[in-house]
Specification:
By secondary structure, the chain is mostly helical. The chain contains 6 helices and no strands.
Length: 121
């Protein structure tokens, strides 16, 4: 099952169990959505419980998602569309395209067969 289908199934299970009325993820007040601060606090608590030394934020997950897509071979234009960036240069800066990553990309010319030595007459 593709990962997107797994996420959809998880969301459906959540919805069947919780049956939120107005908001998919309601805040403490069920008439208001879960707020940014509540999400940031949850990420911080989870990070602390996991014993992680690096401070995380919800934005860290967005960045990691984009970098994992890049490392899996997804082209930058597709990542741009998924992130909702207007400019491709924003996506490139966002991904902080490392020189090592760019330099490690094989050239299509490297795929050419090696020249065959012909015997001299």
């Amino acid at each position: 099952m593709p990962k997107t289908h797994k996420l959809l199934e998880l969301l459906r299970t959540y919805w069947r169990q919780e049956r939120p009325l107005e908001w998919r993820f309601p805040g403490q007040d069920p008439h208001q959505p879960l707020g940014r601060k509540a999400v940031a606090d949850a990420v911080k608590r989870a990070s602390e419980r996991a014993g992680l030394s690096k401070e995380l934020s919800p934005h860290s997950f967005r960045h990691a998602y984009a970098v994992h897509l890049l490392e899996a071979g997804t082209d930058v234009r597709t990542i741009q569309l998924l992130l909702g960036h207007r400019s491709l240069s924003t996506t490139a800066r966002y991904l902080r395209l490392a020189t090592t990553k760019v330099c490690a990309t094989p050239s299509p010319l490297d795929l050419l067969p090696s020249p065959v030595a012909h015997p001299q007459k």
